[in-house]
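Lab notebook page, bench 4
Experiment: in silico fold of construct C2
Operator: M.H.
Input chain length: 158 residues
Purpose: comparison with the prior construct
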Amino acid sequence: MAFSLFNKKPLDVLNDVEKEQIVQSIRLAESRTSGEIRVFMEQKCNYVDPVERAAELFFQLKMDKTTDRNAVLLYVAVKDHQLAIFGDEGIYRKTGKEYWENAVNHILQHFNQQNFAAGVSEYVSEIGEALHQYFPYDRVADQNELPDEIVFGDCIKK
């Protein structure tokens, strides 16, 4: 039986084990950096450009309020097959546009191979590596500034 993320009902995109896999990848990545990573999933993107939607969500989630401006949002619109990554100015200045374009292409390869949870988890790890390189974990000063849980938009099972 073939599996396709985008043929499943949006309510059933991730099972509990896959959700936990993604949350654990966020926690592990953040254990090596002062940066923050969030994943937001919704059924449809009402924007032409998913980066615009990701930017809107980034600010709604107050991700721009981290101390070092080093938060990254991974945005997925399941039914529309759209993906965007939005990094705050602190990390974006250090990595550049090409890094984020390559990252999107890399994660899309996993989605195309129908390894959705694994793709998200691996990319979260890669974001964590970039954050670690530029914003290493400081045992004394670091604190978890944002929740690690996946944020789900309307119509997606929480």
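Observations: Helices lie at 16-30, 50-60, 89-95, 97-112, 116-134. Residues 9-152 form a domain with the Diaminopimelate Epimerase; Chain A, domain 1 fold (CATH 3.10.310.50).
Next step: discuss at group meeting.
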